[in-house]
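A reminder from the course coordinator: this example appears on the midterm review sheet, so study it carefully.

Given structure:
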């Protein structure tokens, strides 16, 4: 399997897993009715509808804002897909695939619900980190993977020092 095809597979699986988790949390698990559920001393489940981007930045309450964020998500996924077509290394392809899958997962939420469903809340005492979902995990993991690829993968034609 080529890095491109593997990256596409990763993107599809990432989006499917994100949407399956959201369907479970909103459906059978009924997180909306349960409210905040403590899993560990530092991790809770809670439902937060994010109408913005990371950390709730650029919150959009209007339909125009919602569709703008859908467009930005789709353009971002398309740019990363184009980049994926140029990659010849598996770590880079997996990383870009995770970013694409995460972006698509959140775009699907905006299309279905008008906002992104977030569930995971890390906290230490009264300090609370932002609430996030699996799509966000995929995007962060993809960025970390890209940084690792940048630091460790050398093109075949690079000068040896």
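Designed residues:
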């Amino acid at each position: 399997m080529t890095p491109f095809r593997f990256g596409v597979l990763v993107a599809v699986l990432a989006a499917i897993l994100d949407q399956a988790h959201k369907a479970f949390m909103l459906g059978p698990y009924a997180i909306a009715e349960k409210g905040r559920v403590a899993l560990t001393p530092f991790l809770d489940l809670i439902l937060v509808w994010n109408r913005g981007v990371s950390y709730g930045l650029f919150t959009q309450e209007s339909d125009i804002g919602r569709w703008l964020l859908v467009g930005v998500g789709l353009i971002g996924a398309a740019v990363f897909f184009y980049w994926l077509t140029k990659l010849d290394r598996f770590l880079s392809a997996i990383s870009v695939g995770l970013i694409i899958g995460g972006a698509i997962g959140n775009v699907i939420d905006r299309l279905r619900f008008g906002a992104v469903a977030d569930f995971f809340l890390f906290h230490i005492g009264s300090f609370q980190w932002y609430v996030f979902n699996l799509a966000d995990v995929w995007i962060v993991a993809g960025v970390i993977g890209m940084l690792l690829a940048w630091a460790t993968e050398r093109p075949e034609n690079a000068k040896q020092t």
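The helical segments are 3-26, 31-34, 63-86, 90-113, 134-152. The mean pLDDT is 90.
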